[in-house]
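lol so apparently i was supposed to do this last week
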Amino acid sequence: MKPPRKDKLVIAGNGLVGSLLSILLAKRGLEVEVFERRPDPRLGAREAGRSINLALSTRGLHALREAGLEAKALSQAIPMRGRMIHPAAGEPSLQPYGKDDSEHINSISRSGLNELLIDEAARLPSVSLRFNQKAVGCDFKKGTVKLQDLAKGALWEAPAEILIGADGAGSAVRAAMMALPGRDFSQSDLAHGYKELSIPSAPGDGDARFRLFKNALHIWPRVSHMLIALPNFDGSFTCTLFLPWEGPVSFESLRSPEDVERFFSGQFPDARALMPDLAEQFFANPTGAMAGVRCSPWNAGGRALLVGDAAHAMVPFYGQGMNCGFEDCVVLGEGIDRHLKVGGWDKVFSQFSAERKPDADAISEMAVENFVEMRDKVADPRFQLEKRVEKALQERFPGEYTPRYSLVTFSRVPYRVAQSAGEAQRAILGELCRGLKRPEDLDWKLAERLIRQKLSPILSKLEPVQ
Ligand SMILES: Cc1cc2nc3c(=O)[nH]c(=O)nc-3n(C[C@H](O)[C@H](O)[C@H](O)COP(=O)(O)OP(=O)(O)OC[C@H]3O[C@@H](n4cnc5c(N)ncnc54)[C@H](O)[C@@H]3O)c2cc1C
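anyway here it is w/ flavin-adenine dinucleotide bound
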């Protein structure tokens, strides 16, 4: 492949990751052209997309800070301090996410955040945004991308000597890249689908508009399925039902309004009472599929690179897909600062692919595991005891015992380190909780020895990250 002649980058996809990346690249003095399949969302044409709101946490916030947009994003977000568990029988209870309320995740509107990023990118003179342009193929040798103008129907070819695929889980850039020799690709489809439903806001002002506790991510865990709800700024909640596609309790089994009514009244009576138009919503709203995508390498020499869901779509159960994609943009920016002058785009892209992929693999695996935790374990008294023991360990050994959830969500330690720490923590908790009834009876000497033996060697190697 010929080396590219000049440093103009073309990005396919102006979603969350593509739009943030365009800003971070422009801030480095690079010229960027972005082609997006959808119409310009700022002109009012909003597409019904995946998940109406998202959980934004430390990694994503750090990336937004680099773009100068953290404060603006947070002004549109609602802090969620913990999981509010709605058991099948009994009262809801809050399981805090972090060591105190300062450690929380943030519920933010996907379209609001995307528009904030697009607005900022549009203000930058070195970014040009083209909407209604769908990438349908790439020629990495020639350095071009083939586009379909969805407003006019015409096919055309644009120069793209350096092309970044930020075109999501069904990436066209990835499809072209995976057709090159020496590529690995796999996709694992989840046996569960999801459907979004809305709890409307209540009349009134301020917090009175929220019909459930405002500052939590609500979960109704029911072992083979679950319902979750995240608060929106206007007082409404967006619920997501995760249910198997097929089987006795499944999307397939809910065929009539009566089926839906019976299912919700039996499984989630408190949530059902807050959705007067449940059956209408259920049949009007689409049912989405979830899949994990793995591929390697993520680059075609210095000509093309995949980022965000295009490189590593994952199931949504750790709330990290976007956060991880945003962190991709930061890591790529740091790679540009370090390698572009001496090694060129080839070095930047191949280093990024080699270094970042193990982290994406780690969070993808943890996201699959977390599905079982969310839909099943959170309601289990044994799991709840382990969580209380973890909290006690975190308080007694600050900086030494940081639970995996916190490492993933409230820190920027590499995901692969968080995963290894989590394995060590599972072994430690298993040993400490054997026969234990209350955290007060913990064997502190054993705890200290296990932490120093199993966990400290993993976490002590870390460079401090801001
Ligand atoms: C139900 C659900 C809940 C989720 N919750 C969370 C959460 O709480 N926290 C979190 O961090 N993540 C969450 N995620 C994951 C998150 O949505 C994704 O990781 C994130 O959207 C990835 O951003 P992206 O820009 O890479 O891809 P996308 O958001 O998919 O954006 C891709 C963009 O490319 C455009 N495009 C696609 N094909 C083409 C083409 N051929 N040519 C041009 N443009 C194209 C699309 O129109 C889109 O604008 C969730 C996902 C789901 C499904």
